[in-house]
Amino acid sequence: MTAKEILQLISEKGIEMVDFRIVDVPGRQHHVTVPACEVDEDMLEKGVAFDGSSIQGFRSIEESDMVMRPDLTTAYVDAFTAHPTLDLVCDVYDPQGVRYERDPRFVAQKAEAFLKQSGIATDSFFGPELEFFLFDDVRFDSSPQGSFYAIDSSEANWNTGKDEGPNLAYKVKQKGGYFPVQPTDSQHDIRTEMVMELMRAGIRVERHHHEVATAGQAEINFRFNTLTATADTTMLYKYIIRNVARKYGKVATFMPKPLFGDNGSGMHVHQSLFNGDTPLFYEEGSYGNLSQTALYYIGGILHHAPAILAFSNPSTNSFKRLVPGYEAPVNLVFSKGNRSAAVRVPVAAVTPKACRIEFRTPDCTANPYVAFAAMLMAGLDGIRNKIDPTELGYGPVDKNIYELSGEEKLNIRSVPGSLGEVLAALEADHEFLLEGGVFTKDFIQNWIDLKRTTELEPMNLRPHPLEFQLYLDL
To answer: Which stretches make up the GS catalytic domain (predicted)?
Structure first.
């Protein structure tokens, strides 16, 4: 859309406010709102000033002036504001009009540009599957003298004996939440309203269903798209899910492991490359109908996986999910059917254009712009350097990994077990990310420093309630 078309849309829809939005380095959205009567072509083209020192991971206070300039193709009439509001996703610039290198959206756009320049393909397509929980109550605190968290859900198996006046039973059993119908699936109508709002926002939704865990785990899948467009959709998706949940008096969380003893929430990411209209991952009759290009792409993903996880699983909570069991994709292998493999090859009802690989390890604490970019750069490195996953011992493995003999398991590598380990892996292995200037050394070091100082170190300093059970009497 042009600036004139945006102004026409504002007039036609009776828009009263225009919301300018950016994404910080960890992946949270921020916004500034301008009365629609103050918005003109000049503002839509030149953007809105803001204080970059107040945005996590951006600039320090002595160089804080920055500009957010809207991408007019992202216009969305907000469904959750009392006054008609138009939302616009923005790119970040410095005052001289130069793109800001720590803007996550810029990293995604540079990755797409590098793909075209490489001559390997013209387009990369990404299709994330976001899982989340819908809770009725979430309470937590962390202070010098104590800490706790408490969650609750009317669906939870621990509420079978609760006096709910009356208790209507049909609670979801532990690990029993996959595909039950109503009344066990009590959140069907909420998810349907989420789907309707997503579609009204222009997002093509493919399906929704209850997920495996008790206590309201859900999944809503949307159609794949190109890298940056999919990251934009992921941010809008989260915004809509959270606000519809709030409308129903519930809280939506994309935390990987908010619930002990049951399945966590992941973000399986389907990926493919095209050259124009030609799919590059398909070769009929080969393993999983995968081309050699696709196999090299898998090789790059698995070879660089420990470093990728610093972006795709960038929280301490991520590694509460990435443990053996619970269908956790912790094994650095590829497979046609094994859901504990880091890379799965979908084979059901696959056409040449639908042929793809699925990286199952990521979760929704990832900033989608940088996580998708890191995956693409790893895959491209695999193609450019002909990294053969089979030669490196990454499979294929189509047996149940948990039933393998001890000797067979010795040959299967696992993902790192903590945020600290993947940050160290990123420090040791990031040259593939620097190709074409997609990531910069500054962005990577800033990411590592931010994660260590604001997440890892504070977590390591605090006593855990379980430690009192384990050690109080020693």
So the answer is: 104-474
Instruction: Report yes or no on whether pTM surpasses 0.90.
Output: yes
For the chain, what percent of residues have pLDDT higher than 70?
Answer: 99
Distance CA 413, CA 409 (A): 8
Name every residue whose Cβ is closer than 8 Å to that of residue 348 and which is 6 or more positions away in sequence.
none
What's 249's DSSP letter? Answer: T
Alpha-helix runs per DSSP H in 251-350: 292-303, 305-312, 318-321
Residues 6 or more apart in contact with residue 101 via CB below 8 angstroms: 440, 442, 443
Question: Domains plus CATH for the chain?
Answer: 3-100 (3.10.20.70), 123-457 (3.30.590.10)
Q: Known catalytic residues?
A: 51, 129, 131, 211, 219, 268, 339, 358, 360
Q: How many helices (H) and strands (E) does the chain have?
A: 15, 18
Give dist(CA 155, CA 139) in Å, integer: 17
pLDDT tens figures, 158-175: 999 999 999 999 999 999
Q: CA-based angle 233:238:244, to the nearest 5?
A: 120
